[in-house]
Amino acid sequence: MVMSVGVPLCLWWGLSSTGWVDPRFLPTPGMVWLALMGLWQEGFLLSDTLASFLRVSAGFFFAAVVAVPVGIAMGAFASVRSLLEPLVGIVRYMPAPAFIPLLIIYLGLGEEPKIALIFIGTVFFNTLMIMDAVKFVPKELIETTYTLGGNRRQVLMQVMTPYVVPSIFDTLRVNMAASWNLVIVSELVAAEGGLGKRIAIAQKFFQTDNIFACLIILGLIGFILDLSLQAVMRMSCKWAVK
Questions:
Q1: pLDDT of 176-199, one tens digit each?
Q2: Fewest CB within 10 A of the end CB: N or C in the chain?
Q3: Rounded CA gap, 164 and 169, in Å?
Q4: What single-letter DSSP state applies at residue 99?
Q5: CA-based R_g, the chain, Å
Q6: Which residue from 185, 214, 202 is spatially nearest to 104, judged by alpha carbons?
Q7: Could you tell me which residues come within 8 angstroms of residue 163 by beta carbon, excluding any fewer than 6 positions away?
Q8: For residues 218 and 184, is the Cβ–Cβ distance under 8 A?
């Protein structure tokens, strides 16, 4: 882990320190650190990070609340899959940012369209990935449950759902990155605060050090969230941790 972070950092420091690249285009790590401290002292770092985090949390939470039961139902029941899979398969290929004009028309410029954009951009991928996970539940487990007298509800709630919980965590980890991409897109279009808004302001005034600082914060938040989900999975799904 140290090498994977340290080597790119050293390459960045070496390249930016040679003077071959104008520091206005490639600031040094020191300049980015000073920009980070400046944003912190001005109060923007905390407020923007919190604004983006709350938008992502709300949009991704609603997407997970919908996707988990629907994905499990689609994977477990052929009738539900036949009904919903074509629709989900079509809508998921519609780029979520293309919905922004409609969301602004329908929901205005407040928090609602940003949360809705994250919801639209993640719910369909979550649903299909969870459905696929359910489809790969070993038939031996299901047949054994029926042989032992289990009914359909027990197969669904006590065999399929526990079996796919680790896969659900993996799905959420993968698609969490998409939610951060979308919140930045929404904030670049219309927002009063957030890391995307801060990047847009920095671009306007050619403050590349501030842009690098915001990008690093985004990367760190994503990394921490990913580690957090892995930790929750290890604690709640010990049978699946190797």
A1: 888 998 988 888 877 788 898 899
A2: C
A3: 9
A4: G
A5: 22
A6: 185
A7: 137, 141
A8: yes
